[in-house]
Amino acid sequence: MAKSRHVVVVTHKRLRESGNIVQNTLLQLERAGFDVTLIDTNNIPDFGTLPPSVDENTEIVVVLGGDGTILRAAELVHCTDVPIIGINMGHVGFLAEFESFQLEEAIRRICERDYLIDERMVAHVDVWLPGQEEPLRDWALNDITIERADRGKWSN
After folding, report:
1. Is 129 inside a domain boundary?
2. I need a labelling partner for 88 at 20 to 30 A (CA). Which of 67, 101, 123, 154 fits?
3. The whole model's pTM is what?
4. Which segment of the chain is annotated as a signal peptide (predicted)?
């Protein structure tokens, strides 16, 4: 018996509630033989732990949303070999491979494993805080922003 294929679909509450796009995507993937797990971006931990639904058995993460949703999904797969495919349902889609009108083509290509994996570089940052013996360590896919700790000094 062939091993079942597992896909994780990441989206956000607003998109789930706005129509049938998410449900139709889940249905198409299930009909194609995938075990599908749906994750809302509100349920992605901020740092350090992977939800049990993204593991070595996950073939791919499909993101329905904009760049913000893709960046949140990147937190799920950081330090794994699981690829992400983004389908832009938002306003900004620089990180997405497909636009919303290409949803059926994207699903077909996922089912046929007809995609190339583009390795993305990540930036690692160490932040040394006064009085701390170890730095805070983090990473970023898109960019790193450095801000003053006391934003109140900037206001009038």
Report:
1. yes
2. 123
3. 0.81
4. none
